[in-house]
Design goal:
- By secondary structure, the protein is mostly helical.
- It has one domain: F1FO ATP Synthase.
- The chain is built from 3 helices and no strands.
- Helix 1 runs antiparallel to helix 3.
- The radius of gyration is 17 Å and the shape is elongated.
Length: 75
């Protein structure tokens, strides 16, 4: 069994780690921003959700790549 594919899949899944850290930081900063300016919460939440969606997309891309690498190894 060739373990290079499994190592590559592990690195691809690591993109989820960065996305999780980024989403956590964004959530904390959003909470601080809304606490400082509650009247601007609508605009803040809009930008927050857009940023979360982009960060989560990178994690999903990494997961898909990992699945493709593992399936390539099986075939």
């Amino acid at each position: 069994m060739d373990y290079v594919y499994l190592i590559a899949a592990g690195f691809a899944v690591m993109s989820g780690l960065g996305a999780g850290i980024g989403i956590g930081l964004a959530t904390g900063r959003t909470s601080e921003a809304i606490a400082r300016q509650p009247e601007a919460s609508g605009k803040i939440m809009t930008v927050f959700f857009l940023g979360i969606a982009l960060a989560e997309a990178t994690a999903i891309y990494g997961f898909v790549i990992a699945i493709l690498v593992v399936l390539k190894q099986i075939n």
